[in-house]
Amino acid sequence: MPIISPTLSPSNALNSLPPPTTSTTSDDSAKRALLTSDTLPIVKCTARARIPTTNGVEIFLHLYTNNVDDKEHLAIVFGEDIRSKSLFHKRLGESQSDRMTRGAYVGRLCPGRRIADIDSKLGLKLQFDENGNITNDTVDDDTDDNDSNLKPASIWNDETLVRIHSECYTGETAWSARCDCGEQFDEAGRLMGLQGHGVIVYLRQEGRGIGLGEKLKAYNLQDLGADTVQANLLLRHPADKRSFSLATAILVDLGISKVRLLTNNPDKIIAVEGKDRLVEVVERVPMVPKAWLEANGGVRSVEVEGYLRTKIERMGHLLSKPE
Ligand SMILES: [Zn+2]
């Protein structure tokens, strides 16, 4: 079976492309309707755990299930105070031990701890309404803890640094220099680690949503001369098959309503805000490739330069190479 559709040549693939987008605001309701779904997916955080990382920063990894696909999407959370409503919701018949095991605890676990909802060492206590929904943290004023990761939510203003990251096995694990996904992921983590607060929503949509197998075929087409957009179209996939409504739903579940979004993609801003704008992007924080800023750092290859050029010229990304 031929990979390349006989009815879709590179030239008519190009003709079917939408024009590049340049708007950065939500002024286009038609585009919002196109990029967002009417109803948000239902997401549920099933487990959370503290991960000490190799650079010394602690993160809380949240694992999500949902009602639209069978993949396990993730939220990498910087800041102990960011709480998943679905995770912390009290479940019928569960014990405090059950709650600690699935990660629905306040503060920090330690050997011998018995109560999930109270960390007496740090003076933290969770509060719930009569339906078992988490309402707030309280902090005992007597505590002399200075760990910035344990400030109650009210201390932070609502604006949270967020990155919506789509899985890229090749760029993050197989050292690929065809894209800068690994670098962007690392940089987002670095910035959030410095701030001690932020969320990377990690969506399992490899290869702009077409999956790893199709992505590898697209790479071969790129070696045959197609750019990243053309390659997807030649495989009869949209240039970008990704959906960000799961990210919106996860941010809502984490109680995050105002976002400083790390992205160069104006469509992502609209998509993440969603139809009803339950999440508001108050600022776009650019992601400039390190190779453009530093003499030696960053992903450097002929392929990544072509990839970035296609993003800018064909997909409307807001990025310009410094002179
Ligand atoms: Zn990538």
From TrEMBL:
One of its GO terms (molecular function) is GTP binding. Residues 155-286 form the GTP cyclohydrolase II domain. It comes from the Eukaryota. CDD domains: GTP_cyclohydro2 (cd00641). It catalyses: GTP + 4 H2O = 2,5-diamino-6-hydroxy-4-(5-phosphoribosylamino)-pyrimidine + formate + 2 phosphate + 3 H(+). GO terms for biological process: riboflavin biosynthetic process. Keywords: GTP-binding, Hydrolase, Nucleotide-binding, Riboflavin biosynthesis. Pathway: Cofactor biosynthesis; riboflavin biosynthesis. Residues 1-30 are annotated as: Disordered. The keyword Nucleotidyltransferase does not apply. Its EC number is 3.5.4.25. Residues 1-27 have a biased composition (Low complexity). Gene3D superfamilies: GTP cyclohydrolase II. Belongs to the GTP cyclohydrolase II family. NCBIfam families: PRK00393.1, ribA. This is GTP cyclohydrolase II. It comes from [Candida] arabinofermentans NRRL YB-2248.
